[in-house]
Structures are given as structure tokens and as C-alpha cells.
Amino acid sequence: MKFAVDNEYEANKIRESLELSAVPDIIDKKLRQVYAELPEEVPVKKHSQMGRVWKTAAATVSSLAAAFLLLLGLNGLNPALAENLPLVGSIFQFVNRGYSPTVNMKLASSRISEYAVDVSEEEGSTVVVPAGSVFERAITAQLREVYYDGSFVLAGLEFQLNVDDDWITEIFQSKYDVIINGEPQIRHNEKGQVEYPHGTGNGFCDLSDYFLTKLGDGTYGMLKGFRVPDHLQGADSLEVELSFDGFSGNGIPVNSSGFTLPFTVQKREIPTKEIDCEGMEINGIRLLSATSNPVVTYLELEYPETYNNPASGAGFDDGIAIGFFGGEESLPMNGIVRDMNVMAGLSESETRSVVWSLFDKNGSHKHEAVFVVDFVNGTARIGSEEDLKRAPSADYACGVEAIQNLQDGYLVEKYRAEQEKPMLYLASGSGKREDLWVEVWQDGTLVDSRQIHWNDNGWSDNFLYFEYEDDGSILDRVPGTEHTVYMMILLNGYAGLDLTHPLTVKVYDSARELVLDQEITLEVNQN
What is the pTM of this model? Predict the structure, then answer.
């Protein structure tokens, strides 16, 4: 599911809808705790496509995304590491995709550089944008490399913003669009503002990032991308113009001048596997096409609009996520919804099949269709719920006595290694809150890191100890174990992790003094 968020605008919309001038602290804290303790089991795989219910109000999805991100304050980048990142090689390797990184997505992102064309030295690839007001900054935008395979365009961009904010997002007003061969592709409302979702039925599918990844001091990266409209599929070249309304940092405009980046792309031949899906249909749901190359995997389906709030998505046959570039449902045409799934490409050595399913949430409450796509043998078949596997998960819990005996310092209370929501709970023995730096290591490799501030809303007082069941549900909280804890989502806390190997959690204080060096062993759940 793709989100487009202007933090300041969307946060205000959320507050207006709740008739609040600000989100009360008690509600904010409670929401965080509730989210952290939600059961893991869901009826369909992650990255479900948006049902028709979302289309009744423009920007509803982006509002929820803003609420989610403002709520959790996600920031997985190590600033110390970022300052030393060499800006060489493919920018695609530095830009994260989505909020649940997968091994397959990371590998596919690395492979983009093999087929992308470096355009950073070409004339017109750099635009200097003046400040929109005395309180804003001039910025430099540079198109660094472009990938085009005849169906998909992916562009890696670099921005010099002259700021040092961890949180930079794109602003969306009225001008944002993607122009291809002179044709605008983004749907706008009667006020000229961008509408989401903005499918128009022509096959265009926006895959763009709307959050910038910090690459270094004042330097940020972004990926823009889209599926080429049906009538331009396979074109040898395209004239593209990317439009921007500006950027904001932590809700404050950095630059609101607006600008465009025009460029030309030439098609490159990429080894692609395509499966003949003709006649593949169950319960009115048809698998139309399935293609995959080392960068992009694409499944296109259609189903009747009569399904009541359907949710669809795909993953590997072992339950592990593929990684999504994006995708959305087009507007219903003649009562039929077009479902476009743009996922990370598959390596030549990948042997797992791709499993797509549709679950009718408010209708039959069951999976109406399951398709199993085998790119190795070039076949597709109708599957069943037995083909839908749950991804492996594992847990660590310190135990009640460890919490009761914790007098000072810090302790890893829980680690939930789960694909949908990898969590780490850090208990504070003294109950105090302070600025901390948390690192998770495995086999000598840094898995993830996270900065904590003393006033972050991730802190929770009077927290009662509990443990997770194998299915992600929660055992009863233990009375008399009130303590202070910091709950954090680790974006990389699952992808690539060997659940059978120990983890080491290191915590540093604001003076960079090591205050915790704890090895933990995960217990693999029997799903």
C-alpha cells in the first residue's frame, strides 16, 4: 500500500476530524501502547491493496499514514553512519522502500544499478530551486540515474536541502504530476489538488517515494517511479517530466517554490520471464498476466466490483514478503476492478513461487482466490488457503524475575522478531528517561539501529510485564511489575535475520558511553 503524506497538512486534518487542537498526550501514549501490543495474526498478507471503501474520501489513506508515522516517530537511520556514507555507486542502494524492508527488496534495489543509466553529468539533470520565502532554503535537485525496461521507469534523485532534519517529506499541493510524452498522469480534484488513490484506468501506476532518505549532511535521496500507461507500453523512448510542489522538514516547509525535472529515457532490454495466464479464473477473479525480471515482478488481476471491501496481496510460498514497489487498484471499469501489483524482482537463483490471494473482509470473510505463480517452471495454478503460509517468527522475553530485580541501568525486556512488526522493548531500571542510541548486532553485522530521545512518546511508565504467544497474541500482564519501558519498531529487525543465531543489543548514552551490552537468544515459534 502506498502513502503520500504532507505531515503538517495531514496532521491538521486528523486533528480537525477529531475536533482537537492537538492530540492529547494521554491518547497519544495509549495509542502507542495499544499498537505495540496488537496481535500479529491477520487474515491476509501484508501490502494488501486498497479496497473500494478507501475511494469514498480522498486522502483518507494518507491521513492514516500521517497518523501512524506521527504516532510512532519512525526513524531507522543512524545519523553518525549517514554522515560518513560515500555518495558513490547506485542511489537505489541507499533509498529504503516501504516500512518493512525485505531481503528480496534489498537485493532487487542493488540489481537496479546493473541496468540503470547514469545521467548525473547530462545537461539539464540538475535544477537549482530558489527559496520560496525568507524562512525557506534554496535547494539543488539532481537526477542521478534512470531505469526503463519498456514497462517501468525508476528514477534515483539526490537533493541538497541545506538542512539537517531526519524527517523530510514531499509537499503536495496542486502542481504535482508526472508528465509522459506531454500527457499528465496524476488525477486532481476540482481544486487542482492531488487525489489519492489517483488511478485513471489507463494502466499508469505511481510507485514513487514521498519520504526522503538521509544520505549525508544536508544530502537526501528519493526514488520516483511508475508503470508506463498501457498505450505507451514497450515504447523505445519516453519524454518524462517529474513535478514537485516542495519539501517540508518535521512539518516546517524547507522549500515550497515548486519545480520540474525533465528527462528522456531509452528502453533497455532486460531478461524477463512471462507466464501465459489465459483462462486462470476462480470466483470471477482472473489472473491476467505475470512477469518478472531481476528488478520488477508484476502481477495483474481483475475482479468484480461487487466484492465487499476486498484485500489482496502477494508473498513467497514460505510466507516471507517479496517487497512492494507499490501498486493500486484502478477505477472500476464496467464493474471490474483492475488490481496491479508491482513487486521487487526475482534473482535468477530464486526457486520460490509467488502466492497471490484476495480476502473479502466484509463479504464472505474468506479467501475468494489464491493463485500460485512459479516463474522457474513458467506455470501458474489456482491454489487454496493451504498455500498461504505464515512467515517464521521468534521471541525473546527476559522473564518476570529479571524485571522485578532490575534496580538500575537498562535491560532488553522483549524482542519480537516478526515480519509484520519487529519490536524491541527496552526496560529502564531507574525509571528515568534519557537520550540513547540502540544497536542490534548479529554475527558481527549491524542489523539495525535507533536513536531515542528522553521526550520521545515511545516511553511508557507503569508498564506491566507480559509475554507473546507464538501467534503474536499476548499473555495476561503480570500485576506488580510496573516499570518504565521504551517500545520501538526496528524496520530491519526481521529481514535477513537468522532466527537461530543469538543477537546482541548495545545501548549508548548521550556521551556515547556503553550502558548495555546484552546477548539474547530467540526462541523460534512453531507456526
Answer: 0.78
